[in-house]
Amino acid sequence: MTNKAFKPGEVITYNVFYAVAGIYVNAGTATFSLTEEKVNNIPAYHVVGEGRTNSGYDWIFKVRDRYESYFDTSNLQPLKFIRNVDEGGYKKVENVTFNQQTNTAITNEGVFKLPNCVQDVLSSVYYARNIDFNKYKPGDKIPFSMFLDNEVYDLYIRYLGRETIKTRYGKFHAIKFKPLLVKGTIFEGGEKMTVWVTDDPNHFPVRIESPIAVGSIKVDMMGYRNNRYPVSSLISFR
Length: 238
Prior knowledge:
58% strand, single chain, mainly beta
């Protein structure tokens, strides 16, 4: 797949709202920034995703996460993945090097064989932004493979159609889908998460809703800059 959705310099910020007794409170922030670099002389997009709970909510479930992905600009295949997370006391540092020629991943635990067109946690988000949803009808599954914790998972995105959604930033024409998740320390497995992305060529998320290990969260996009295209899906500000 080739990139038609984003460009280097893009930065998108989010607020994370945590449900307490049915009322959502602002409990954290997340930022995704994109640059272009080289990995072993291969032009690559470098995405850094950082998420953290606000200090006032650390006592509930402290999160200090940093994810990095380097993926080939020509085909969006990952070249390198770095995960440094602290989630409710669970800490993990992971470094993965992908070899496209041999279809392998090298981690601290060894060398693992991969299928064609595998993604990492972060590159899968940018891969999904390049899906042409016009090819699908509501209910269709769009498959992809992801390498995580030394395992390959066969996952999919279930396309749910188009709708208008009102977020804390504004009202958008949006594309709605549910990704099949791998169970982790925060998110439950299965089709529990719902994602809305802009119904314009940028396809960046404007809202995410999901149950988590303790309660549920709602994530709203609160700022963006250096998009590849005008955000024509925005109907009105809040």
